Amino acid sequence: METVLQVHNVQKYYGSKGRGMGTAMTKALDGVSFDVRTGEFIAIMGTSGSGKSTLLNCISTIDRPTSGQIVVDGRDVTGMRQKDLSRFRRERLGFVFQDSNLLDTLTGEENIALALTINRVSPKEIPGRVEQVAAMLDVADVLKKYPYQMSGGQRQRIACARAIVTRPAIVLADEPTGALDSKNSRLLLGSLADLNRQGATILMVTHDSYAASWSGRVLFIKDGRIFNELSRGDESRQQFFQKIMDVVSFMGGEAADVR
Amino acid sequence: MYARIALGNVRRSIKDFGIYFLTLVLGVAVYYAFNSVTQQSAVLSLSGSMSTIVRELGAIIRAVSVFVAVLLTFLVLFGNRFLIRRRKREFAIYLTLGMDRRHVSGIVAMESLVVGAGALVVGLAVGVLLSQALLYATARLFNTHVTGFGLMFSSQACVYTVVSFAIIFLVVGVLNVLEVSRFKLIDLMNADRKGEKSLVRNLPLSVALFVVSLVLIGVAYHELRVNGMYVIDWRFNLATALVTVGTFLLFFSVSGFLLRLGQSARGFYLHGLNMFTLRQLSSRVNSVWVSISIVCAALFLAITSTCGGFALVSSINQSVSAITHYDVSVAMYPQATDDASASVETTQGASGSEMEKLLKASVPDWDSLVADSARIDLYTDSSMRLSLAALRGDTDVEVPDSFTKYTNSLGKVPIHVTSLSQYNAILALRGEKPVVLKANEALVTTDMTNMVGFWQRVAVKSDGFDFLGTTMRLRARRTTMEYSNAVNTSVGTIVVPDGVLESKRAQLESFSNYLNVKARDSRAEARLYKEVARAHQPGLLFEAQSKSSAKEEAVGLTAIIGYLALYIGFVLFVSCAAILAIQQLSDVAESAPRYRVLFDLGAERGMVNHAILMQIATYFLFPLVVALAHSYVALGVLGSVIKTLGVLDFLRPLGITMAIVLVLYGGYFLLTYGMARGVLGEKARRRE
């Protein structure tokens, strides 16, 4: 299978660089390397402060790494110019945020369509594509509603629809279940897994072992380095969850996260 | 401590305060400059009557300033409310940190004080410069020069300005403190999360209301155009009410209508950020439609008063050259006297020639002052056998539109009579060739420009009219004629051969008598004017109008109207633009999270800037366009009223008004757009 994302020895330092007493420097990412292949559903786990958010920001071109390479869909994003970046972002990347980040002034349908109009997709094509992804994510019945008329889970699924409607190379999900109750979390993760089965490549950042257990592979990050990696293979989700829990408790006993 | 917080706040949010501050400075500067007009007479070399005019102008401006001050109070209140609303979170932090409500109010009051005092100082400095410009404008207007160094500082205007604005800031400060002390912590904390409801509007209802509003405005326009405002009756009031309701409805429904329209044009709606922009516009309408309607009303007032004022000025300037046909023209009236012991039994019946003799007798050195003179006696028939209707006969020539509205019975519009010899004498005084009439011919004349064509058509079609028992043919050879320096007095005056007049003299009575004079020189003209004013004969009244006095009066009137138009127009335009600017900037700041989403979705800066531009342009243009339409109709109606008195040219005044709009309103628009881009730039950088 094709590699859609290559992260190669990425470092991200914060603070003063080379100003004599360089002790104020923080290494948020300290030589992270991994690949994601087309059609994968990968989770990146870590506690807060582990560097997982910095990593996601670097991949999503919101932040630039201090050194190293990030190749998305065959193009190195670390050297791209600002103008190319926003184009690259809207054409090749899809985002799902913790708070669905929908526009409150637009209906569900329009929120999904907005991602297409920004991409200058022909207006003729738009309604069909919106309906298609809405059906995939089971939100056809809330398309005419405004975000404040929807449940949290519905909002988040609309956000997923918005992320994939542009057919991005990779969907980046940042704690997508963070603001949901357990029932809605399960529904959303199910949807993500469905999308993945239908071919979407998903990279999800989470601190929640349960959420991670829906993915096919989990990378554990600690102190800016990749600490461990788990693949689900043929295991059931429950078995995979157990293995993830083991790694998590080994990493630093995050009992609070156990469900 | 609290003072430091307040100062720090002002410094940090200099951008937020920016437009507000600029507006205050402009307000103070204009307020000072116009109020200093009174004292211009001190540094200008002006004649007695002119300095009286300048003082009168000052008094009127002072009176208008009360209205301006009230307007500015509302403006300052409005600006403050927005600034405070945007800072609810900050106040919440103060309160959660355990700061006393009193102290928070103190901080707010302190900030108002700092900004207000700063604006006052800067505004006065700008005002002094502006008043200097006004001073030279007045000097040019009155065709005089500035005496001394020419630098003018009006301490009176300064004190007046400081006191006025101190009161304004005091009122606003008290209201601010009240608002802050009413805040509830829970509301402050949730300030950001509020206002998500009521975004949805019933779109079909909006469309229906929009159509209704257009119909209302259309009906009102029609009513106004048909009925004009010659008479302020219930129809006029109805039209005013309709246009007011229609305008409010229009702004209430227009964004919903635009949204619906946009949605039905798929290709447009689903292109770029159009969908977002339209939604954004309609989401704001609930909170802004009232203020936009008021802005529109204020703009209407500004455009109409500025444009109308300038039009009046140019009309006066035109008519001043049109009316002063004679160096001095004296109207001579018999006057009823209650002085029973007076030796005059009745000068009531005094003939024109007798009055002329008496006038000449009462002015010393008449012959050395006067080069030439010509008297004209106008007669009328009190039984109304000589009326507009009688002269028109059955020719069915239509009377000018504006004229019919101004009077309802043409049979009651009197026509005056004078003799050919006097008419020719006046022509000679004006240096023109005499007119020849056959014994059965009557020449019709008027000094109303819009009646000339009418008379010419009547003269062509008419087979003659009955002149008190004799049929005469109507001629219109030299129809335009003014019999004195007074303006627009004669709808129609017929000139008949002396013999004819003499034979009917018994059936006519004297109407008015003028003596038109050609003075030896301008000094003689001034002297004569003064002497006639002083001239006194029992039972007689002399009223003189000289070329130069008419001009001075006109200049004075011009100055008063022109300055008022500028003053009111300027303040209103700035107020409207400032309200829109503050509203739009706080709107952009409040919508910041939405723009962040757009950047997240990969929208480029250019796209987002375009969306912002469209929004701001809509908010600035829409009330302006509606106000222009209203003004167009109102000025049209007003114009036809004034047209009955003389010509009115709206083109140049409209040009000047639009130039003011372009500079002030356009300046605020560009400033707002620039600042909004700045705000967004920060958001974008945080994402990029």
Plain-language structure description:
The complex is a heterodimer of chains A (259) and B (688). Chain A is an alpha/beta fold and 259 residues long. Chain A is 35% helix and 25% strand. Chain A has helices spanning 52-59, 82-92, 108-118, 126-136, 152-164, 182-197, 209-212, 237-252, and strands at residues 3-14, 26-37, 41-45, 67-72, 75-76, 93-96, 170-174, 202-206, 217-222, 225-231. By secondary structure, chain B is of the alpha+beta class. Chain B contains 24 helices and 9 strands. Chain B has helices at 2-12, 14-35, 40-43, 48-85, 88-96, 101-141, 155-182, 185-189, 203-227, 234-264, 266-269, 274-323, 352-362, 366-369, 388-392, 401-406, 420-429, 449-461, 498-504, 522-534, 547-590, 592-600, 605-643, 651-687, and strands at residues 328-334, 370-380, 416-419, 441-445, 465-467, 470-475, 493-496, 509-519, 540-546. A 5-stranded mixed beta sheet of chain B has the order 3-7-4-6-5. The longest helix of chain B is centred in the middle third of the chain and has 50 residues, at 274-323. At the A-B interface, helix 2 and helix 3 of A face helix 11, helix 12 and helix 22 of B.
Secondary structure: elements and pairs:
The complex is a heterodimer of chains A (259) and B (688).
Chain A: E1 3-14, E2 26-37, E3 41-45, H1 52-59, E4 67-72, E5 75-76, H2 82-92, E6 93-96, H3 108-118, H4 126-136, H5 152-164, E7 170-174, H6 182-197, E8 202-206, H7 209-212, E9 217-222, E10 225-231, H8 237-252
Helix pairs in contact in A: 3-4, 3-5, 4-5, 5-6
Chain B: H1 2-12, H2 14-35, H3 40-43, H4 48-85, H5 88-96, H6 101-141, H7 155-182, H8 185-189, H9 203-227, H10 234-264, H11 266-269, H12 274-323, E1 328-334, H13 352-362, H14 366-369, E2 370-380, H15 388-392, H16 401-406, E3 416-419, H17 420-429, E4 441-445, H18 449-461, E5 465-467, E6 470-475, E7 493-496, H19 498-504, E8 509-519, H20 522-534, E9 540-546, H21 547-590, H22 592-600, H23 605-643, H24 651-687
Parallel strand pairs in B: 3-7, 4-6
Antiparallel strand pairs in B: 1-8, 1-9, 2-8, 4-7, 5-6
